[in-house]
Each structure stands twice: as C-alpha cells, then as structure tokens.
Write a structure and sequence with these properties.
By secondary structure, the protein is α/β, with parallel strands linked by helices. It folds into three domains: 10-90, Winged helix-like DNA-binding domain superfamily/Winged helix DNA-binding domain (Arc Repressor Mutant, subunit A, Orthogonal Bundle), CATH 1.10.10; 96-162 and 262-284, D-Maltodextrin-Binding Protein, domain 2 (3-Layer(aba) Sandwich), CATH 3.40.190.10; 164-257, Periplasmic binding protein-like II (D-Maltodextrin-Binding Protein, domain 2), CATH 3.40.190. 36% of the residues lie in helices and 20% in strands. The chain is built from nine helices and 13 strands. It has helices at residues 10-22, 25-32, 36-50, 66-90, 103-110, 197-204, 219-227, 241-245, 274-284; strands at residues 55-58, 61-64, 96-101, 124-129, 143-148, 156-159, 164-169, 187-190, 214-216, 232-236, 250-251, 257-258, 262-267. Strands 7, 8, 9, 10, 11 and 12 form a six-stranded mixed β-sheet that branches. A five-stranded mixed β-sheet has the order 4-3-5-13-6. Strand 8 (187-190), helix 6 (197-204) and strand 9 (214-216) form a beta-alpha-beta unit. Helix 1 crosses helix 2 (25-32), helix 1 (10-22) packs across helix 4 (66-90) and helix 2 packs across helix 3. It is elongated and about 90 Å long. Pfam families: HTH_1, LysR_substrate. One of its GO terms (biological process) is DNA-templated transcription. InterPro entries: LysR-type_TF_proteobact-type (IPR058163), LysR_HTH_N (IPR000847), LysR_subst-bd (IPR005119), WH-like_DNA-bd_sf (IPR036388), WH_DNA-bd_sf (IPR036390).
C-alpha cells in the first residue's frame, strides 16, 4: 500500500505554507499570483491526502488548526532551505550586478573594502550614485544602500556598521587652543536623516551654539569643508575612520552620539545568488 505522504505535490505544500504564514487564503493568493479558489483547492487536496484538517474555516476567514500550527514551522524551514540551496547552486549568475549607494558611503566605506572582492568569474560590479530620496525605491534593480532602522520587509538586508556621531575638525583649526575650547569654533551643519547638533547638545549637555553658518546636503561636501578647516563637523565616526587614522581630521570629544539608525545593504530575492550576497556582506558589513 502506498504511503499517502509519498510524492506530495510541492505546490500544495507551498500553498499551505504561504496561507499559514500570512493567516489568509486571500493574502496567499496575492503573494503567489494565484486565485483564492486555487489556494483553497490545493490546501484541500493536501488535507485529504494527509487525512487531517490544517485550517479551521470560519465565516470571516481561516485559522490554523493545532496540527497545522505544529507543522507550519517545519514546512517553512524546509522550503526556505530548498530555496536557499537552489539559489546557491542554480541561481542566476548575473554577469553584471549594480550597487546603488550614496556618494559618501561609496567613497568612504565601500570603495576601501573592494580589494580582492569577486562575486564570480567575469561578474562585473557596477556602482551608481543614489540620491537619498530614491533609497526606498523598490524598482531599482540590484543592491541598494538605505539609511534607517532596517525594519523593512525585504528578503536580503544587512547593517553596514553601528552608527556613532562625534565632532571632528582639521588639526590646524585647534592649533593654539585648549582641547575644551573646540566648542567655540564654527560648526558645520548637515541636512538629512542623521541626528545633528541639537541632538548632540541634548545628549552631552554641551551648548547648542554656535549655530552652523555653513550647511551642506551631502556628507562628502561637509567632510571636505571640515578637512579644509571651515569648522567642526558632527561626523559619522565609521565614515571618517581613514581620515582620523591619517590625522587629516582629529576627534574633539570622547563623548559620542549613538544612533539606532544606520546604513543597510538590501536586495530583493532573485537579484543575486545567496553565495554572492554572503560574499558582499562579509566584505562590506562589520
């Protein structure tokens, strides 16, 4: 006698996993591109073959049965392993992968970490500058760098670094001054999502003045002004690590302003193989 569990159609199991994960036949139909009737039919066939109800049908929807709730984690894990292994072994090996990033992150974080990086034989990495307003554009193909908390429904996401802000300046600007007098120096303002001098004052108790008379909308431009001695910049410490190491800039305070937000590398499923993603995160993320 044949085992009823033998040769279970994968599309039945997939329909169950999506519906169970989303808690709705309608939502499962939307994710899979099938009709609600097709999802219901496949799950019904699966229940008949297994001889157990996986869902409890109610007038306003469905809920997992005890058996369905117990089985779902195993099915989700199994399908995830199958998908990951197939991407790893047979995924599309794109000959060109685009990475979208702000100019500042590309110049000060990514580019210094590219030596020796390879995503496969003859795979070309193409870097394109991304404006802040376009960071959350899902239509961009490839890998994107986004600033935020990382709380996005995106399959691939990895934090580049822990964001910490601190005041920095050119050494010449401090020449002849006592270390604590840095707060009297001109300040450089930076527009955008990062915290600024107001948050620094609230965190450290330092005076919120002087008000910055120079303000930039890109970190790279603000950093160039700081290097030239135009003022004190509240900078992302990870992005100025090379400038601090070379003494182009000096850190003016041991206080720091940590941020819950940071830069993240994100990609939709199918944009690259799992192996390529792992290689990128190893090279670029801390």
């Amino acid at each position: 006698m044949d085992n009823p569990l033998s040769n279970l159609p994968l599309d039945w199991i997939h329909a169950f996993e999506v519906a169970g994960r989303l808690g709705s036949f309608t939502a499962a139909a939307q994710e899979t591109g099938l009709t609600q009737a097709a999802i219901s039919q496949r799950i019904g066939h699966l229940e008949t073959r297994l001889g157990v109800a996986l869902f409890i049908r109610k007038p306003r929807g469905v809920v997992l049965s005890v058996e369905g709730e117990a089985w779902l984690p195993y099915v989700t894990h199994a399908l995830g392993t199958l998908r990951q292994s197939s991407e790893e072994l047979f995924g599309i090996q794109r000959k060109r992968l685009t990475i979208w990033s702000s100019a500042s992150v590309l110049e000060h974080w990514i580019a210094p970490r590219l030596a020796g990086l390879s995503l496969g034989e003859d795979v070309q990495l193409s870097f394109k500058t991304l404006m802040l307003a376009s960071e959350d554009n899902p239509q961009l193909r490839g890998v994107r760098l986004r600033y935020g908390s990382g709380d996005w429904n995106i399959p691939h996401r990895a934090r580049l670094f822990d964001e910490v802000l601190a005041p920095v300046a050119a050494p010449a600007l401090m020449r002849g001054l006592e270390p604590e007098r840095w707060q009297d120096l001109p300040r450089i303002g930076l527009s955008g999502p990062r915290m600024g001098w107001h948050e620094w004052a609230a965190q450290t108790g330092d005076a919120p003045t002087p008000i910055p008379l120079l303000r930039f909308d890109t970190f790279t431009a603000a950093l160039s002004a700081a290097r030239a001695g135009a003022g004190v910049l509240l900078a992302s410490v990870p992005l100025v690590e090379r400038a601090l190491a070379s003494r182009e800039l000096i850190r003016l305070s041991e206080d720091a302003l940590p941020s819950e937000n940071s830069y993240w590398m994100v990609a939709e499923r199918g944009e690259l193989t799992q192996r390529q993603w792992n290689t990128l995160t190893t090279a670029i993320c801390t």
